[in-house]
Amino acid sequence: MTANERQKIIINTLKTRGGVIKVNDVAKQFGVSNETARRDIEYLKEQGMVTRVYGGAILSNNFSQKFFSPELDNTDIGKKTAIARAAAAMVKDGESIFVGIGSTMLQLVRSLKCLNELTVITPSLPVAMELTNTPFRIIVLGGILDSNELDLSGPLTLNNMDFFHVDKAFLGAGGVTVESGISDYDPNGFGRHAKMSRCADTTILVAQSDKFGKDALSIEMPLSQVDTIITDDKLPKEMEAAIRETGKNLIITRLDSKE
Questions:
Q1: Averaged pLDDT of the chain
Q2: Any domain includes 161
């Protein structure tokens, strides 16, 4: 595999998963030395595609879609972008919001940059860094750092939320069912979803359709705490019917959505 092919895969991984990619992980994935992996990341940094962080890299704030070759465009990104735009349309200038973790949250805050005044509170370092060049007030919740995903969790994170009351909380999910509610794969983050919801006037769940109908490892909170659910048009009809029966506001986006 050529360096160019490796670099395209590195960017595609960051684009679809968000978070941080580690030098060690790149080396293991491609069977190359750490030095080769560092050179790949350094090249991407020089091209303005990534920002170096300790042990790896994240997508650059100034990264543009023009750097991606057509083969890296995929349906998942289209779904996340449409969902993020619909969620961003619910935010007004001057509001305060909680923003959770994950690549869809990153797409959400990118869609908020057209606003002039906003307070964003988040446990996600990539979300905070994405907004560093905006006029927004950014508050990062303290806690224990996950060095892979660059998010903060633990008792300190939960306790810090007690100091805030926001207009809206935007939450992601690893799994969603009517019976169990919202679940996630990382038990270290347990309690963040429910606490954000309790500290917000309105709670919005943003999740791709493939997250529905399954439970992840850690059950976070029931759907009764959610006001609005935003997903894409691949949501199974039986799941759509079950959600509508709960009385929740369900917004279904499409890839060509301009919201």
A1: 88
A2: yes
